[in-house]
Amino acid sequence: MHYANITGWGKCLPPATLTNNDLSTFLDTNDEWIQSRTGMQERRISHVSTSELAYVAACQAIAAAGIDASEIDGIFFATCTADCTLPSAASKVQAKLGATNAAVFDMNAACTGFVYGLSTANAFIQSGQMDKVLVIGAERISYFLDWTERGTAVLFGDGAGAVILESSTEKQGILSNKIGCDGDAGHILSVPNFGTDRARFQNIDGLFDFNFEGKEIFKRAVTRMGEASAIALEKANMTPEDVDFIIPHQANLRIIDFLAKRMGASKEKVMVNVHKYGNTSSATVPIALCEALEEGRIKAGDNVLLAAFGGGLTWGATMLKWGERTTPIATSDVELPAYNGTALDLIQDAIKGCQDAKLARESQVDA
């Protein structure tokens, strides 16, 4: 029996921080309004592409595992904000790493993408087709935000996280998975005109529609993450009492609290960093995993539950038994290109563009 064991991990957060007070300079909002509804205080805005964020996180994960990029058999890149359609973001990371022996592809399961990636990598390793797989979750969500819409502009940030999975005959690493999708309700959390459905030669104003039905998303997120977690536990022959630590998708503090209550878990057993980074979509779980290890909150042999919910509407959970090592074998000196400006500087043109486009749309309606 082959088990997919996490042996390396890494994250990348761009340096520019956008605070709630920054948002209040151009939106009708304030720190109290945002924190009371989401638990968020700040988020990061990237000055580089999604694949660049992913590359830095991947270098950290490879160093932590103590392997060479040439040993990697597969690179599975979860993102809904790839640099471009062709080539894939995964192929860009492969080229930067020099991982010439790796098969690569992007997968889009929105915020559940990293959990989907773990499940896919686990299948390849269990079948014996691959021995070492790099799984990445990385996003530059700030690119398609409408900075005039308070309900969504305050929620999201940019970042990346990655892990190395290696084949092991010991019963550790991924014990079980459950992934799924409620496609019939996918419209409630969607960006419908971000692909080839978008008309090429009509008036393109730069705005992307972001459908976000908050109350319905909240109900479904709590329900589906809870159900997926229960199934993953059952597959692993475990109960909630066996779980030592929970890493949920960092979408909203209230969703995290409801999931913890459903699992009967104390606050000490649940990772929360949504206040620092907002919702980084597929990157939230691997970033939170890295920080939990850095903070010493995951111990050797711990049973760790990962759960996520995302656009589409995807959902899933993974049950892990952590291995013996909780510290990196080495660290990477690869860093993002320096940036000395502010987050507001980065999005200033986007703010003005969104404001102008919104006014143009409203004037067309009035006419």
Automatic annotation (TrEMBL):
Q: Matching InterPro entries, A to Z?
A: ACP_syn_III_C, ACP_syn_III_N, FabH, Thiolase-like
Domain of life according to the entry: Bacteria
Q: Which residues form the Beta-ketoacyl-[acyl-carrier-protein] synthase III N-terminal domain?
A: 105-183
Q: Where is this region: ACP-binding?
A: 250-254
- In the UniProt entry, which residues are flagged as the active site? C111, H249, N279
Its principal location? cytoplasm
Listed under GO cellular component are:
cytoplasm
Reactions catalysed according to its record: malonyl-[ACP] + acetyl-CoA + H(+) = 3-oxobutanoyl-[ACP] + CO2 + CoA
Q: Which residues form the Beta-ketoacyl-[acyl-carrier-protein] synthase III C-terminal domain?
A: 233-322
| Gene Ontology MF, one | 3-oxoacyl-[acyl-carrier-protein] synthase activity
Q: Report if keyword Lipid metabolism is assigned.
A: yes
Arranged from A to Z, the UniProt key words for this protein are:
Acyltransferase, Cytoplasm, Fatty acid biosynthesis, Fatty acid metabolism, Lipid biosynthesis, Lipid metabolism, Multifunctional enzyme, Transferase
* GO annotation, biological process: fatty acid biosynthetic process
Q: Could you tell me where this protein is found in the cell?
A: Cytoplasm
Q: In which pathway does it act?
A: Lipid metabolism; fatty acid biosynthesis
EC annotation? 2.3.1.180
Task: Name the HAMAP family for this protein.
Answer: FabH (MF_01815)
Q: What does this protein do?
A: Catalyzes the condensation reaction of fatty acid synthesis by the addition to an acyl acceptor of two carbons from malonyl-ACP. Catalyzes the first condensation reaction which initiates fatty acid synthesis and may therefore play a role in governing the total rate of fatty acid production. Possesses both acetoacetyl-ACP synthase and acetyl transacylase activities. Its substrate specificity determines the biosynthesis of branched-chain and/or straight-chain of fatty acids.
Q: Which family does it belong to?
A: Belongs to the thiolase-like superfamily. FabH family.
Q: How does it assemble?
A: Homodimer.
Instruction: Tell me the domain comment.
Output: The last Arg residue of the ACP-binding site is essential for the weak association between ACP/AcpP and FabH.
Identification of the protein by name: Beta-ketoacyl-[acyl-carrier-protein] synthase III
